[in-house]
């Protein structure tokens, strides 16, 4: 006599939930699988929302289609996957003793109770809103759901809004900024902290801010929203913490998300210290028959071992796949953790990151670190190469790579992916310095940007180079510190572009014949640079060989200088 089919209920139909359900179905043709989704749409490509809003593509159905172009609606799930998908249906109660889920069909108000053997919670997250007056005004939006995307796309298409503010200078904030700017809306990003994109080193974030302003949008940092201002129930402006008032007809709040844990909490499941559902490596909650994944859970950092929250769609899919396998074959799959890797497009810049930046590393207790910032092209100039600026972070004692950020108009995605896998594999600088990466002029330099980063960082770790950041050099200049600054480029380059910080033009080819122009005190600090600081590094080696002992190189050179220039 055959056993009863396994009863699986999945709460949440965005990313992790459908992935878990689909994987379970592929492993068990006979299981009873029901998917509960509060929204009308299923399996939405939420990372595509800003591009739909911005008009990069116009067909809304592309956000809910399979690669073959088939819309993932309840009929698709039923016919193609034999999964019952209940849309516009909210799960309201989990009875762990009876092993049932109560849900309500929102349009009709009808309730039903579903039994389960194994349950999946993939309830996602809710956008945060500043706790300030005026949040109820018409004209204040978020971009979390497809309904949010529809509303913003309608505003874009109507063409009536002239001024908008984005509250929050993170990934989503700048993706929305670009989308609205492309629609001809004057856009200002407001960030409460002193720097945008907190996963970036401040120098790189400053360079991104320069690009955003160059494109015609504005950024205000170190200033939060104190109130939303309205007229007749409609948004008319925002008041900042310093009292400044900015007129606007649209505000998009992108200050982060809060895990949707109410259902899990009410069921008595354990919640982690960061406010997400606590799960183990198999994505099981404190109830072994209940799994959870996606934006509502906490997971483990592979770098620090600490619990973190990582509300990213790719991770939700990976976790859902692990759950789908464990639903049918318990304890057969695990999700070990994350390196915190992400990427976004902001106007002509790609902004990618993986692992920890220097500040994050120190905050996590990893203090014995070394960093390097470099600039260069992604491919040769004769192939149309574009600029990349990056920072790599490693432990001094072990050489283990713990972070990498890469920005610019060049292909940053390939470089971030390479380092993400190096971090995942526990590789160090030594392994990367001799990495066998693919090379051909249409795709890379002979020494790829990642390999050069490793080379320069290795030089610093071995004491072959002393580096100086742009911020450190600017601080010296602003304070009137006694240092001798040398621009090692050619006179032609100097005439086309220069910093104007009191530098002396001594081309690297003329340096050895002009040593008498350098400070007689060979312990005085000398700082050298060029376009990317390769010539600066070569000049520094020559000066050290001639007895100067306090020689530093401006990391990244002029390309990585984020501050105003003379020319």
From TrEMBL:
Leader peptide range in chain numbering: none
Entries under Pfam families matching the protein: Pyr_redox_2 (PF07992), Pyr_redox_dim (PF02852), Rhodanese (PF00581)
Keyword tags: FAD, Flavoprotein, Oxidoreductase, Redox-active center
Cofactor(s) needed for function: FAD
Entry-linked CDD domains: RHOD
Domain of life: Bacteria
SUPFAM superfamilies, alphabetized: FAD/NAD(P)-binding domain (SSF51905), FAD/NAD-linked reductases, dimerisation (C-terminal) domain (SSF55424), Rhodanese/Cell cycle control phosphatase (SSF52821)
Residue stretches making up the Rhodanese domain: 479-567
Family to which this protein belongs: Belongs to the class-III pyridine nucleotide-disulfide oxidoreductase family.
Protein name as catalogued: FAD-dependent oxidoreductase
Protein species of origin: Marichromatium bheemlicum
